[in-house]
Specification:
Chain lengths: 247, 247
């Protein structure tokens, strides 16, 4: 089995460790004080950043907010011919950082697994969406094939196209959902099917942190435009109604 | 069978005619030139407004926009002891108009059937929601019992409570849905369950007219407040994110 180094043992990193250990010889690291315990809980070996970054395949599973820093840390440690993969939920910024900071002698693939421990625990991996963006070299094909071998629904696309879609899929849903949650919309007896969709959207994002919300709105370069266009549209509709216009 | 006069043979009026003719001796009228044909298509007798308004039970099924005028027209025609019922999708305004315009010698019940020909054709009447608001006299109990005998899910409440709930259930969903439709949100390959809710909301309201939208936003006294609060909330969230605040 190839040796795979995993940087980051947060919620998604631990899921990655548990999934990848059947297919690779996984060593993992994390800056958290309890990193060795997390590695052990996920059934993989704990190692230093040096050792992890020196593997044939290096998977970076840290929050986008600290990703640039982590790429800078592993840049002098990665071996010629290695493959570096990120799993961030936006793609334009991580791709820019990897191209800028990682030495020319490594290949690069950017990915976005559109799932987390909850969805995997509930439904299993098969059918879940996995986005693969070619960045440097041809090994994105192996990454896509590996995803398919796990039963994932793989989409190969560019970082720009990914973020453009996600501006709708993530930024807009979280803006609307969080606004409704903050408004405290009531679970009305008179709910219609349309209103049920709003209530269920609230249920899906009710427990997300403000930090996640801010990340979704700021780390995707296309998000502000879509979010602002939605608010402007709603405002314009209310103005049309108030002015008695009929268009 | 009691004689029931139906004022209005639009989409909902025709559905009402087809439903009520098995339980009442229905005569119907409408200002449209093809009113006799509409009555005949619904299987009920066409009659003048005088004859219709003179029935033991009078159901007013006209758009809220012309309802005040219609109450004024039938006011001198209704018989002592008659029961007048409206079926508008808002309740505060029709109730105010009925109390103001209809003579003290008639009883009044306001209703809102939360369904139309499409939902009935698809699912049948049983389980559909029917709101009954007592206005004048005790016959709301008979109206509620009749709704239950058709299998409808009957809610007895006040006009104010109805409109307060509907400000969320209708005004908010139509504001969000219409904004998304106008924005042209794409059916993305990377759609998540949250985004699916927005796409399905768009599907449900895509074909509604601007007139219906304006009516929902203006004929419910509680709608502007809820709609504005939503837009203000979304705007405030985007400002918080832009300013880098974390609350």
């Amino acid at each position: 089995m190839k040796r795979l180094g995993l940087v980051g043992l947060g919620q998604f990193g631990q899921l990655a460790a548990r999934t990848l250990k059947d297919h690779f010889d996984v060593v993992a690291t994390d800056a958290a004080p309890d990193a060795p315990a997390r590695a052990s809980a996920a059934g993989v070996a704990y190692a230093s950043l040096e050792e992890v970054a020196g593997c044939e395949i290096v998977v970076v599973a840290v929050p986008v907010a600290v990703m640039r820093e982590v790429f800078g840390q592993i840049a002098p440690l990665v071996k010629p011919g290695a493959l570096v993969i990120d799993v961030g939920s936006v793609k334009v910024l991580p791709v820019t950082w990897m191209q800028e900071l990682l030495p020319a002698h490594v290949e690069i693939v950017a990915t976005h697994p559109l799932f987390g421990p909850q969805s995997v625990a509930r439904d299993g991996l098969p059918g879940l969406r996995f986005v693969v963006c070619p960045v440097r070299g041809e090994r994105f094909e192996k990454v896509a094939a590996f995803g398919r071998s796990l039963g994932l629904a793989v989409t190969v696309t560019t970082a720009e196209e990914h973020d453009r879609e996600m501006a709708y899929v993530q930024a807009l849903t979280h803006l609307i959902g969080r606004s409704l949650v903050n408004l405290g919309i009531p679970d009305e007896e008179l709910a219609t099917p349309s209103y049920q969709h709003l209530l269920e959207l609230c249920g899906l994002i009710r427990n997300d942190t403000f930090e996640l919300f801010a990340a979704i709105q700021t780390q995707n370069p296309y998000a502000p435009e879509v979010a602002k266009a939605f608010v402007a549209q709603a405002q314009s509709l209310l103005e049309q109604v108030a002015s008695g216009k009929t268009a």
